[in-house]
Amino acid sequence: MSNKTLKIYCAGPLFNPKEREDMNSIATALETAGYSVFLPQRDGLELARLLPVLIEKDISEEEASTVLNSAIFSLDVFEVIDSDGVILNINGRVPDEGAMVEAGIAWAHEKPIVIFKNDDRSLIQGNCNPLIMGLADFEFVDKYENIPVTFKEKFSESNKKNGAPKKSSFSIANKKGEAIRDYLMAQKPANEIAELLIELFRGILCQSLKG
User: Fold this and answer.
1) Fewer CB near the last or first residue (10 Å), C or N of the chain?
2) Contacts of 109 (CB under 8 A, 6+ apart)
3) What is residue 17's three-state secondary structure?
4) How confident is the prediction for the chain on average, in pLDDT?
């Protein structure tokens, strides 16, 4: 691994004191372990502070709000893509909408994602939404101190694969999704669909058995 300080984008809810405290604890765990961190509530644009300043520039409040919202969007997109990985905090009754967009951008750009969750609330029969969990290989951590450890493992694994031909996670998921769609369109019986799923995701089954 190079001597470059790796940068992690902190994605998660930040709209009340408890949420901000949670995100601060995540950032602190990473910074203590030597990572650089972008924490939007601390390092990003503050709408409340900048809105009146923009209005003083002789533009309407509506125009000022549009400018700021566009700026926040652009900055956060840049910071996600500029980061080496993303920590996604999905605590809450439902995950934060903005954090999910950030995680989607990160996944599409092949950024390692670690999911943090120590909240028992969930939506689907006690399980987290598979569209969320798939972003982090269906794994999550529930202790702050395990976040930097998990990133270290992901970066180490990524370094081992450097130089080897590698399909993107996006293209792999897309190809598997196409195969499943074809079976559904052909109205294949359930046992044939089950066999296809086992074939497509045999690697996950093997990993589960090892665990």
Assistant:
1) C
2) 80, 81
3) helix
4) 87
> What region does 58 belong to: left with phi over 0, alpha with psi -120 to 50, or beta?
left
Other beta carbons less than 10 A from residue 142's beta carbon: 13
Q: What is the pTM of this model?
A: 0.81
For the chain, counts of helices (H) and of strands (E): 10, 4
CA angle 84, 86, 87 (to 5 degrees): 140
Distance CA 104, CA 110 (A): 10
Strand, helix or coil at 103? helix
Q: Is the CB of residue 23 less than 8 Å from the CB of residue 39?
A: yes
- E strand or H helix at 89, and its extent? strand 85-89
Strand blocks (E) in 90-196: 113-116
Closest CA to 82 of 25, 37, 24: 37
Which residues face 154 on adjacent strands?
Answer: none
Digit-coded pLDDT (tens) for 134-152:
899 889 999 999 999 999 9
Closest CA to 151 of 4, 24, 2, 8: 8
- CB neighbours of 21 closer than 8 A, spacing ≥ 6? none
